[in-house]
Design goal:
- The complex is a heterodimer of chains A (about 190) and B (about 900).
- With about 190 residues, chain A is mainly alpha-helical.
- Chain A has helices at about 10-20, 25-35, 45-50, 55, 60-65, 80-85, 95-100, 110-120, 130-140, 150-160, 170-180, 185; strands at about 45, 75, 130, 170.
- Chain A has two domains: about 10-85, Recoverin, domain 1; about 110-195, Recoverin, domain 1.
- In chain A, α9 crosses α10 (about 150-160).
- Chain B folds into four domains: about 10-85, no CATH class; about 115-465, Na+/H+ antiporter like fold (Up-down Bundle), CATH 1.20.1530.20; about 480-520, no CATH class; about 530-565 and about 645-890, no CATH class.
- Helix content of chain B is about 70%, strand content about 0%.
- In chain B, α5 (about 115-130) packs across α13 (about 310-330) and α5 (about 115-130) runs antiparallel to α14 (about 330-360).
- Classes of the chains: A mainly alpha (about 190), B mainly alpha (about 900).
- Chains A and B meet through α2, α3, α4, α5 and α8 of A and α19, α24, α26, α28 and α30 of B.
- Chain B: It catalyses: Na(+)(in) + H(+)(out) = Na(+)(out) + H(+)(in).
- Chain B: It holds the Pfam family Na_H_Exchanger.
- Chain B: One of its GO terms (molecular function) is potassium:proton antiporter activity.
């Protein structure tokens, strides 16, 4: 990895500050980006990501691909690509401590990790996971052996369990609350994305 | 007759039999000798007892039987095997058996001899390791593995040997006839981590994949180092310590490269040969598995003959051939190979450990020197830890996946020594190495210590180190569900970020592999399996297409295609099986509930039992059982004892189908938005209806796993009772699949067209001019009608159907009608003949015509009814005439149907 190649990355420095990725990691991601961008367009489209074979067998693969393309965007450039991945950077202790109060929360904070997960469920972007939305995710994640009735009852139950204000849907706060005992920092981090 | 020994109560019949038989020859020898003389005079004898005739194989077979029966015994109690590693149990069993045999006649006749070990027991284990090696993981960590294997082993050998020598000089060990070279020799044989021992223990300790592959890889690859160090020091000793010159040392280093690279090269060559041979075994399916074993074994023997590293040879033979062999041989052969290999390896491992126990029961070899033994133990542990820490410190500067402290502890602690060391020490020549017996006893103690003590404690250690989430609490439904979702998200992000050691070299290699190696080493039909899943999908589509048209033929017309009487289909299809499923699974759950087997239940039992709780239980259990497993969990790396790839594949296929179906729908709808303005509204409606129907699809499917056996029958019945509608069922998915393939393989299609004649080409591309349907198409395919300029949506285009959110809309401009279509049109004439060739290969000419019809049908129907059912038609294959049923190559990939 020659040092000269890092200059290829547009806005490397600001991107590094923003996402917290190390130089080497950013470079690796850039390589990956270029690799996915098979026709060297400088951006990725959904098909580019869909071509990754392993995603086709990931029940949530398409949803995750969608999350790279927020607000109906058709393409994602490198900064956008990295910003999504930055959610999965492990939480570093000193980074959290040295952060000034006025600085924005880093992408890899617990809340942002949760928010990323939340928006995978919340398809209509109304800030709530309805029973229907829960059901859709369940349907993706559960094998064909489970009947629709069972699924519905599971979805009902799941929503009820988390739903505190009784509106029949899970808001983000309720979502976060239901997972408060979970080690999100660890579960939603990839070690290698440093 | 002469059962003298008193077998231990627990070991029962086999042992008694064994002992009895051991006594037989002695007792019989005399009788036979005397009776022989009589025989001559008495003439023909009806029954003769010829023990000597069968003695050796008989005893071997009995030992294997004893070991296997013992294994059954161990696993009768889950408690024991979950705490004590099997290897330790086997050693203890060996000790007991050896003790009994020795007590019986005071000879230790059974020991682990180098010949048996190196020629018969080790190869299966190493071959198994190589053949099932997770290649990707292995090669992405190859640098690390090599460093540990080479530098680490040299370091261990040198430090252990030198330190022992230092202590010896201080006089702590008393008076021994031993020199520096002997110590170094001992150090080199005791330094190497043993693959058999490591596998046996690590298999039961579930550490993360990277850690596993590093320790395991190290244990495999350090063989070359061990062999070289061992032979070098042995020859130095033979030469005499003072005559060793610098040139000899240089030669030693050179020989290291010779041995390791040579061994690897031999392995690769034989892998090449093996792949090539399996390419042509189409007509001798039955001996296919044999080739795998024989040729790999030959690689082992060849490198042994050339005094290269035989372990490296057979490892790399397995690693290199696995891809091609698996693609070439039939599904049945693959299963045979898999099971045979596991059986051999597992059996060999069992025998090795048992004999390690038995071999120790021999007073002749024991020479005790407390200081020597204890210090060896201390030194190997300490220096391994130091070595690991030092090397990791260096490695972590370069590694993407950092090795953390916990990993280092496990790596240091997982440095188990095993049978290789024992056999090497037994091989020593007592006339040269005066203190051979001391070395042997120490080696045995070291092996026992590492295998039994460390093997016992490593599991608790691993658990203890990850003590973080010790809180054992029944996770809430939300946690469980979201937790699983997070796992999936993570694995997807990993794939997207390509962080599992993605690098330039791999790309280069896969290019080279695709362009040259696969062409030579794989069957034509297997070559297109660049992507296994896509390939499966493609196969399914082909079969569907063929059966679909054959169905039309059976009825005498293809009219049924147009009849839109599909509304009640859904009910027909899923309605029937569903109730039974529910019942089955619920009764299953209830049964489970009673026995409280499931972990969920146990924790739940403490709660107050109410209906609500029962429901919860059922829910939890259902989730537990049926949530798709994330990759990390189900892709078990390497296991000697478990074979469950089918499950994973099933899951993969299931998810893949759904994903494709979804993508297809959105793809199609977006496309229609462009091509078919007039019909848009109607289609939109249909899509909606379709979606509603689809929504019940995934979970309305037949429970394949459970009901696999009656599935076929059901489908057949279904077909008979409702012949009109079934075929319609799968049209859209397969056409969808074809579309998708066209899309996905677009960028690779060019080289596949020129190179691999059409077998790589998705069906859409196969439409050559002469095959264009004569009838005016009611619904022409969208692409030809698309405006030549890449304008995404013409003005006045209908609102995109709801599903158009995802790929489709973006996919379309991406298709770049200018080039995409041009290439399609331009390539068509070329593709036509190519296709012809492809099809002729595939089946009789009749099938060709039929497939052409199928294609026509599909192209016409592509966008009509995007409905996502497909299985019925698959089963219909059974009802086809044989000639259409099985295109030769389809047979090779027979696993596809479900």
């Amino acid at each position: 990895m020659g040092s000269g190649s890092s200059s290829e990355i547009p806005d490397a420095d600001s991107l590094r500050r923003e996402t917290g990725f190390s130089q080497a990691c950013l470079l690796r991601l850039y390589r990956r980006f270029q690799n996915l961008d098979s026709s060297q367009k400088g951006y990725l489209r959904r098909v580019d990501l869909q071509r990754i074979g392993a995603l086709a067998v990931n029940p949530l693969g398409d949803r995750i691909i969608d999350s790279f393309f927020p607000e109906g965007n058709l393409t994602v450039d490198f900064p956008g690509f990295v910003r999504v991945l930055a959610h999965f950077r492990p939480v570093d202790e000193e980074g959290a401590r040295t952060r000034g109060p006025d600085e924005p929360e880093p992408f890899n904070s617990r809340m942002n990790k949760l928010r990323f997960a939340f928006q995978l469920y919340d398809l209509d972007r109304d800030g709530k996971i309805s029973q229907q939305e829960m059901l859709q995710v369940l349907r993706l994640m559960v094998g064909v052996q489970v009947t629709e009735e069972q699924l519905e009852s599971i979805a009902d139950r799941t929503v009820q369990e988390a739903d505190e204000d009784g509106d029949g849907a899970v808001s983000f706060l309720e979502f976060a609350k239901s997972l408060e005992k979970m080690d999100i920092e660890q579960k939603m981090s990839i070690r290698i994305l440093k | 007759m002469s059962r003298r020994g008193a077998p231990g109560p627990g070991w029962g019949l086999p042992l008694a039999l064994l002992l009895a038989l051991r006594e037989v020859p002695r007792a019989l020898g005399v009788e036979q000798g005397s009776s022989d003389a009589q025989d001559a005079s008495q003439g023909f004898e009806v029954v003769t007892f010829k023990w000597h005739h069968v003695q050796d194989p008989y005893i071997i077979a009995l030992w294997i039987l004893v070991a296997s029966v013992a294994k059954i015994g161990f696993h009768l109690s889950h408690k024991v095997t979950s705490v004590v590693p099997e290897s330790a149990l086997l050693i203890v069993l060996g000790l007991v058996l050896g003790g009994i045999v020795w007590a019986a006649n005071h000879i230790a006749s059974f020991t682990l001899t180098p010949t048996v070990f190196f020629f018969y027991l080790l190869p299966p284990i190493v071959l198994d390791a190589g053949y099932f090696m997770p290649n990707r993981l292995f090669f992405s960590n190859l640098g690390t593995i090599l460093l540990y294997a080479v530098v680490g082993t040299v370091w261990n050998a040198a430090t252990t040997g030198l330190s022992l020598y230092g202590v010896f000089l201080s006089g702590l060990m008393g008076d021994l006839d031993i020199g520096l070279l002997d110590f170094l020799l001992f150090g080199s044989l005791i330094a190497a981590v043993d693959p058999v021992a490591v596998l046996a223990v690590f298999e039961e300790v579930h550490v993360n994949e990277v850690l596993f592959i590093i320790v395991f890889g190290e244990s495999l690859l350090n063989d070359a180092v061990t062999v070289v160090l061992y032979t070098v020091f042995e020859s130095f000793i033979a030469l005499g310590g003072d005559k060793v010159t610098g040139v000899d040392c240089v030669k030693g280093i050179v020989s290291f490269f010779m041995v390791s690279l040579g061994g690897t090269l031999v392995g690769v060559l034989f892998a090449f040969l093996l792949s090539l041979v399996t390419r042509f075994t189409k007509h001798v399916r039955i001996i296919e598995p044999g080739f795998v074993f024989v040729i790999s074994y030959l690689s082992y023997l060849t490198s042994e003959m050339l005094s290269l590293s035989s372990i490296l040879a057979i490892t790399f033979c397995g690693i290199c051939c696995q891809k091609y062999v698996k693609a070439n041989i039939s599904e049945q052969s693959a299963t045979t190979v898999r099971y045979t290999m596991k059986m051999l390896a597992s059996g060999a491992e069992t025998i090795i450990f048992m004999f390690l126990g038995i071999s120790a029961v021999d007073p002749i070899i024991w020479k005790w020197n407390t200081a020597f033994v204890l210090l060896t133990l201390v030194f190997i542990s300490v220096y391994r830890a130091i070595g690991v820490v030092l090397q990791t410190w260096v490695l972590n500067r370069y590694r993407m996946v950092q090795l953390e402290v916990i990993d280092q502890v496990v790596m240091s602690y997982g440095g188990l020594r095993g049978a290789v060391a024992f056999v090497l020490v037994v091989l020593l020549d007592e006339s040269k190495v005066k203190e051979k017996n001391l070395l042997v006893s120490t080696t045995i103690i070291v092996i026992y210590f590492t295998v039994i003590f460390q093997g016992l404690t490593i599991k608790p250690l691993v658990q203890w180190l990850k003590v973080k989430k010790s809180e054992h609490r029944e996770p809430k439904l939300n946690e469980k569900l979201h937790g699983r979702a997070f796992d999936h998200i993570l694995s997807a992000i990993e794939d997207i970020s390509g962080q599992i050691g993605h690098n330039y070299l791999r790309d280069k290699w896969s290019n080279f592999d695709r362009k040259f190696l696969s062409k030579i080493l794989m069957r034509r039909s297997a070559q297109k399996s660049r992507d296994r899943i896509l390939n499966v999908f493609h196969e399914l589509n082909l079969k569907d297409a063929i059966s679909y048209v054959a169905e039309g033929e059976r009825r005498g017309s293809l009219a049924f295609i147009r009849s839109p009487s599909t509304e009640n289909m859904v009910n027909v299809d899923f309605g029937t099986p569903r109730p039974s499923t529910v019942e089955a699974s619920i009764s299953y759950l209830l049964r489970e509930n009673v026995s409280a087997v499931c972990l969920d239940m146990q924790s739940l039992e403490q709660r107050r039992r109410s209906i609500r709780d029962t429901e919860d239980t059922v829910t939890h259990h259902t989730l537990q059982q049926y949530l798709y497993k994330p990759r990390q969990e189900y892709k078990h790396l390497y296991s000697r004892h478990e074979l469950t790839p089918e499950e994973d594949e099933k899951q993969d296929k299931e998810i893949f189908r759904r994903t494709m179906r979804k993508r297809m729908e959105s793809f199609k709808s977006a496309k229609l938005g462009i091509g078919q303005n007039k019909k848009a509204a109607k289609l939109y409606k249909r899509e909606r209806a379709q979606k509603r129907r689809n929504s019940s699809v995934p979970n309305g499917k037949l429970p394949m796993e459970n009901l696999m056996h009656n599935f076929t029958i059901k489908e057949k019945d279904l077909e008979l009772s409702d012949p009109e509608e079934n075929p319609d069922h799968d049209v859209e998915e397969m056409s969808g699949g074809i579309e998708f393939l066209a899309n996905v393989t677009r960028d690779t299609a060019t080289d596949s067209l020129s190179g691999d004649t059409g077998s790589d080409t998705p069906l859409t591309r196969r439409r050559s001019p002469r095959e264009v349907p004569p009838a005016p198409e009611k619904r022409p395919r969208a692409p030809p009608q698309a405006p030549p300029t890449p304008g995404p949506v013409p003005p006045g285009a209908p609102p995109a159907p709801p599903t158009a959110r995802s790929p489709a809309r973006t996919a379309l401009p991406d298709r770049e009608p200018g080039t995409g279509l041009a290439s399609e049109a331009g390539l068509a004439p070329e593709a036509g003949p190519a296709l012809g060739a492809g099809l002729e290969r595939r089946g009789p000419p009749g099938a060709h015509a039929r497939s052409a019809a199928a294609r026509r049908v599909h192209s016409r129907r592509s966008f009509q009814r995007p409905r996502a059912r497909r299985r019925p038609a698959l089963l219909k294959l059974a009802s086809l005439q044989p000639s259409y049923h099985a295109p030769p190559h389809a047979l090779e990939q027979e696993e596809t149907p479900l």
